[in-house]
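Below is how a single chain appears once it has passed through the pipeline. First comes the sequence as given, then the structure the pipeline wrote out for it. We keep one example in the README because the format questions we get most often are answered faster by looking than by reading.
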Amino acid sequence: MHATLLSFLGLALLGALHAQDSIPVQINFQQDKLTGRWYSIGLASNSNWFKEKKHLMKMCTTVISSTADGNLEVTSTYPKGDQCEKRNSLYTKTEQPGRFSYTSTRWGSKHDIRVVETNYEEYALVATQISKSTGSSTMVLLYSRTKELSPERLERFTQFSKEQGLMDEEILILPQTDKCMADAA
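Resulting structure:
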């Protein structure tokens, strides 16, 4: 019985690792074209914080810039209550172009970030696998250069999120807001 349980757990771990490796990365990724201002249009996640906070979430702005050593500085500005909050993150490049890592010391989590697809001028689809001591979760973000995106892009976001195992109630098209849009750095 013990050996069977260990075999099952081993297969489950192998399956999880295979699923993580099956997340694609943009072919011929061009990091310099990803930089600039983006709007977060869609967010999907199976994390507990998302389930607790999704009813409060609104569209936000994200500014991406390259650092001298080839990493990405990501600054998101979003409405929180009556104020605008800013979150800065440093995405460290990996050997695979379009794939980055980020460690949150605040939350004790490691993030495997992949730019899944983008045409750089209109939209970007980004998938993140998050690992913590309490478990793992998946997050998918849909970015747009404008506050609105075509129904086809929104559908692609929903479809890709479902391919990652996310359910309808874990997928959100963020409500538009003008709050904090001018404050983005």
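Strands lie at 36-45, 60-66, 72-80, 83-93, 99-104, 109-118, 123-132, 135-144, 171-173.

See the next section for the split statistics.
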